[in-house]
Specification:
Helix content: over 70%
Shape: elongated
Largest sheet: none
Distance between the termini: 33 Å
Number of domains: 2
Structural class: mainly alpha
């Protein structure tokens, strides 16, 4: 959607059940900034407002963000912090990528 109004943006955020904290993490700012954007305290020409709008109306952004969070959390749970294990995890992920590519042919 091109240049939605603040009301349209807020309605879409409600419709999707998005939380300000999650949006803030996804677009790399703090929750307070999101609150100020949505309350109209920051200019509607703000670059961050454009980023917010792009995230809210682009479902690919959601899937990408959610996937990154899932991967990051899984790595943090499994990785002992060593370089050796980092190499093993990297190799494992590359193997999964190859298997996925073969299955999608």
């Amino acid at each position: 959607m091109n240049n939605p109004s603040l009301e349209e943006l807020k309605q879409e955020i409600r419709n999707q059940g998005l939380r300000q904290a999650d949006i803030a993490r996804a677009i790399n700012c703090d929750q307070g900034h999101i609150s100020r954007l949505l309350s109209g305290k920051i200019s509607t020409g703000s670059k961050m407002l454009k980023n917010l709008s792009a995230f809210v109306f682009d479902t690919k952004s959601h899937r990408s963000y959610e996937g990154k969070v899932l991967i990051r959390n899984s790595i943090n749970e499994c990785w002992d912090g060593s370089l050796d294990q980092a190499v093993l995890i990297t190799d494992l992920l590359k193997t999964v990528k190859k298997i996925s590519a073969q299955e999608n042919k």
